[in-house]
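So, could you explain this one?
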Amino acid sequence: MTASMSAWIWSERFWFPENVTWVDLEHPPPGVEYPRLGHILLALPLAFAVLVLRLIFERLVAKPCAYILQIQAGLRRQAQPNAVLERVYQSKTCPDLRQVEGLSKQLDWDVRKVQRWFRIRRNQDRPTIQKKFCESMWRFTFYFGIFIYAICHLWVSPWMWDTKQFWYNYPLQPLSPGQYTHYVAELAFYWSLMFSQFTDIKRKDFLIMFVHHLATIILITSSYANNMVRAGTLVMCVHDASDIFLEAAKLANYAKYQRLCDALFVVFSISFFLTRLVIYPFWIIRSVLFESWEIIGPYQAWWFLNGLLLVLQVLHIIWFYLIARIAIKAVFKGKVSKDDRSDIESSSDEEINSNCSKTLSHIPKPKDNGDAGSLNGETHDH
């Protein structure tokens, strides 16, 4: 069964047009290199190296920059140690009114005191502005570096200007060192994002980003395996271009340069529209869908890869809707208060605050606040 499954996965009729086999790619002419799947597997261990490099970068580069910009980590108020409340918190960060009243009776605490303990405890777990700044600076540095690298080797490539060159003599097209380095770097980075997404700052679009990273990893690996690297490098370059301005806008926001943040966010919105809603569909997808059909004809992997490209396009449309809302606020109100796509912790966090506010509204206010001091004061959710 394992042999039949392997034969199905690596079927030449699936991956290549007619009259092309794996042997053709394994035995290139002298002085020519074709992609081999074993080469790209190097990206997986490199992903862990990228995670280590990120930790070093954030500590030695991003954090000192944050100090220069006076972005401090800040000390969070610590909730009073309480094993009972901590156990409840680990299962539910904002208990409902019935649970709060039960805990109040169990601990002989005022209801407001219990509610205040959970509010302080939630604030402890929120990421600091400095942590957000370091994360964004790492992403900005990678996107900027890999974009410059991609442009340098794509600019002199004939398929950059004539997309029909993607398909001439396909898939027996030589692999350049620049293409290989670009692929391995991008794939290692996206694998590292897949791993770190579960420990990084939680965002509203967690599920969408998970689907995006997964589709991207499958698309990069698949396009390399059947030597669709000419189109693949251009797809990755187009995606990285606008992300540079998004991360730059977030850095300006964390450093409290509001006008710079607003300007960069508008630039990001324009670049996102041009690269992902104009160049990507009308330049790249058009070529992969129609020009490849004319030159080499469709085959099984052709449908698979085009399906993934279209999945990414659907995600682009969803994101642009969210981005446009914020860009309009920036233009007409003069301030980017929140980035619905990436700059707030998570939708679940907002739901927690909303639910907690509703719970509080049903709790009668005490006549005095004499027990507030025992919980190190009161903090505010946002």
Remarks:
- DSSP finds 15 helices and no strands in the chain.
- Residues 338-355, 357-382 have pLDDT under 50 and may be disordered.
